[in-house]
Amino acid sequence: MSDQARVTLCIASCEFSKLCMSPIVIVFVMLMIILSLTNAAGCSVVLPRFSFMSHDEAFFFVGLGNFLWNFSSLFSFLSVCITIVSFSDEKKGAFRVLLTKPVYRRNVIGGKLFGILSFLFLMMAFTVSIFVSLIMVVYGGPGSLSELFLRSGSFVLLLFLNCSFSVGLSTFFCILLGKAEAMMASIAFIALEYLARTPWVPSFLGDLEIINPVSLYLSAFSCGINQNLYSTSIPYLSWASHALPYVVLMVAEVVVITLINCTIFNKEEL
To answer: Could you read off the pLDDT of 154-199 as tens digits, one per residue?
Structure first.
């Protein structure tokens, strides 16, 4: 492993450790625990009323499907906040005193992105696991655990890719703007992404609406009216074949924004 790769991994490790103790993250975890308990209490009352559905259909489509928007918006906001707070250290040159080897800005950007994305993925997996586990406690689990792992795991993947673009975009704004301006620009962009999906706000992109990251995210999740990842009437492989092209485009957008961030500066030492 080269010295530059070691420096990047060191920065990623420091970033991951710092995020674990971040006040923003601690408040977010407390909020998600409260929401998971509230959601479980609601499911214990509401899900038995869906007697016209099978147990598994009510568990997936209603129990798990009802927090799609909450998860999407909350994790998008968390992604923006921790990215902007994280890159404020880079603006201050904090890594000059942490590392003795020459540190290039692209190492800092790459390391911070890797640390943030690793943390977000584990946070999403942990949070979804809590929500699912509590629903299983109050309502009972589905007949197939493999189906549960596949569908909930796929949701985590889609959410992660959507938030990865938010992280990349916030990083881009942090590089070009100040902390406050980057926060406002990032939140405004994400708000426009979601508003563009509402029927009362016409999209100015027309046929290019497909490049909207939120459109890709929701198009991958849903494959028709009342048919999505959590619809047990649709075999998982059928959903996966529908979602694959959108997932590829989501990955491509994340790669593009990451490459832009890592190459926007030359090898300038901090």
So the answer is: 999 999 999 998 888 888 877 777 666 777 777 777 766 665 555 5
Can you give the residue range of the structural domain that contains 141? 3-263
How far are the Cα atoms of 171, 178, 226, 264, 269 from residue 258, in angstroms, in the given order? Answer: 9, 19, 34, 10, 20
pLDDT at 76: 86
Q: How far is CA 14 from CA 95, 133, 180, in A?
A: 10, 31, 24
Question: Which residue in 104, 160, 120 sits closest to 25, CA to CA?
Answer: 120
Domain tally, the chain: 1
- Alpha-carbon span 178 to 42, nearest angstrom: 42
**Of 154, 148, 150, which is closest to residue 132 (Cα–Cα)?**
148
Residue 91: predicted pLDDT: 52
**Is 268 domain-assigned?**
no
Q: Report yes or no on 51 lying in a domain.
A: yes
